Amino acid sequence: MNNMRKIVLFSLLVLATSLQAQTAREFKLNLTDNGDSHMVAFLPEKPTGKAIVGIPGGGYSMLSNTHEGVQWSSWLNSRGIAYFVVNYRLPKGDRTRPVGDVEKTMRIVRDSAATWGINPHDVGIMGFSAGGHLASVISTLSPFELRPDFSILFYPVISMDEKVSHVYSCRNFLGEDQKDPEMVKKYSTQNSVRRHLTPPAVILLSSDDRLVPPVTNGVAYYSAMRNAGNECSMFIYPTGDHGWGIGPWFKYHDQMLSDLATWLDNRQTPKPTAIKVACIGNSITDGHGIDVATQHGYPALLQKKLGSDYWVKNFGVSARTMLSEGDFPYMNEMAWRDAQAFQPDIVVIKLGTNDSKPQNWQHGASFKQDLEQMLKKLCPDLTALPKGKKKSKKVKPVAPLKPQIFLCTPIPAFKSTWDINDAVITNNIIPILQEVAQEYGLNIIDLHTLFANDSDKVQPDGIHPNDKGVAKMAEIIAGEIQGH
User: What are residue 151's DSSP bridge partners?
Assistant: First the structure.
């Protein structure tokens, strides 16, 4: 029996030493000049390229940075994940303090990716309780370049309505703005989830949480993500109450780590060198009528067609127009700002369907000008070819412009649903697209002709492609991209 005990103790010692050895380097960086906030970095011996920025909880009145902070370093580093704990400033009436500290950390991690063995396209955020709220703010409201690639939210505060949330987190974060219904709504982050733009998330919580009600917080965020068609998972454990983090006292500790490990291992991550493809468009790009369009819309299928050497992102927004005087101009959208910040190598533009509506086409004289404005925002070096000169497909330019732009014609409107007018598309919008493509030497994909006999590939509204239609779109566009 004594020998058995020695073996067990020795095994535990070896395991502890092994886990400790997984951290190759630990250091601290100040986030403010006076050191009021800082991040602690734990870099793994064998990096996989994945990184996680950790946000401890504490109700925005303190930092619980042990079992919700530094104690995660061994487990994450043992999996090859770089880990950065943010000891952020508490709001004290100014929410820009914690938000600014976390955003600065996100920027530092991405800027230092090559030095620290990190894939800049695989930087996640992990927040606990009030830190989960802060993580969700960064995931939904921060600029594209500071938003994480994935979010891990432990028993998060989501709502800023103190009647259904953690009272002191709400008051401490919003301060006097707690009295402003618009600010309460904005920072109740289930209201800030955006289709395609909010990163994939996993939520972990206890059903018996008495401090942060699960249904109006973590479950509300999951519902918003699922309703938007975004990728989201949720693990609800029967007991555990609140604040367990990586603490071994949590009854479901081992199961929780297994669930999280499986979720992390099964995330598809773009290569650091992947060719970035931005899909800009209206509801047809967005994936109207396609359930979980993030996985089954045409951009998602385009990703599968192009393979791992490409990174395709969907920036489609339903009902949007090319026309700046249309009812819902695309260039007013967060998706448009994100598409530019993505810094794509290739852009696929499919707008024009909604421009054909009477209330929009009354401004049709500006369509070409608005299209040119979009193109020059995407590619400031874009200039028109000399008059009469045609682009040659046989001659490759010495220094091709970035991004490479593909203009798609709208698919046919088989019905006049929502007053969409196929005659305007055919006689007015398509000729302008062809003219601009010719003048600037751009690639044009004539989906209108290619779908002319495919009324079976659209939904009953006669406008939006069905599952067969989006599969055909992905095949056509993938072929054009690979062919050029």
Answer: 125, 201
Query: 299 to each of 26, 281, 305, 442, 474, how far by Cα in Å?
Result: 40, 11, 10, 20, 7
Amino acid 401: pLDDT: 76
State if pTM tops 0.85: yes
299: its two tokens: 């951009």
pLDDT, tens only, 446-456: 999 999 999 99
Structure tokens at 428: 């007015």
Q: H-helix or E-strand containing 14?
A: helix 2-21
pLDDT, tens digit, for every residue of 101-135? 999 999 999 999 999 999 999 999 999 999 999 99
For residue 118, the Cα-to-chain-centroid distance in whole angstroms is: 18
83 within 8 A of 77, measured Cβ to Cβ? yes
CA 246 and chain centroid, separation? 26
Secondary structure tally for the chain: helices H, strands E = 19, 13
The overall average pLDDT reported for the chain is 93
Cross-sheet strand order for the sheet of 201-206: 23-30, 38-44, 82-87, 51-55, 123-128, 150-154, 201-206, 232-237
Distance CA 173, CA 92 (A): 8
Give all strands (DSSP E) within 356-428, no chain letters: 404-408
DSSP string covering 170-221: HHHHHGGGGG-HHHHHHHSGGGS--TTTSPPEEEEEETT-SSS-STTTHHHH
Give the model's pLDDT for residue 294: 86
Backbone φ and ψ for 373, nearest 5 degrees, come out as: -60, -45
DSSP secondary structure string, 373-393? Answer: HHHHHH-TT--PPPTTPPPPS
pLDDT number for residue 386 = 76
**Strand order across the 310-316 sheet:** 310-316, 275-281, 346-350, 404-408, 443-445
- Of the candidates 78, 68, 72, 79, the one whose C-alpha atom is nearest the C-alpha of residue 20 is 78
Token pair listed for 277: 């493809």
- Cβ neighbours of residue 234 closer than 8 Å, sequence gap 6 or more: 202, 203, 204, 205, 218, 219, 222
- CA separation for the pair 139, 200 (Å, rounded): 9
Asked if residues 469 and 421 have their Cβ atoms less than 8 Å apart, the reply is no
Q: How far apart are CA 13 and CA 21, in angstroms?
A: 12
> Residue 409: enclosing H or E segment and its boundaries?
none
Q: Which two tokens stand for residue 290?
A: 């396609």
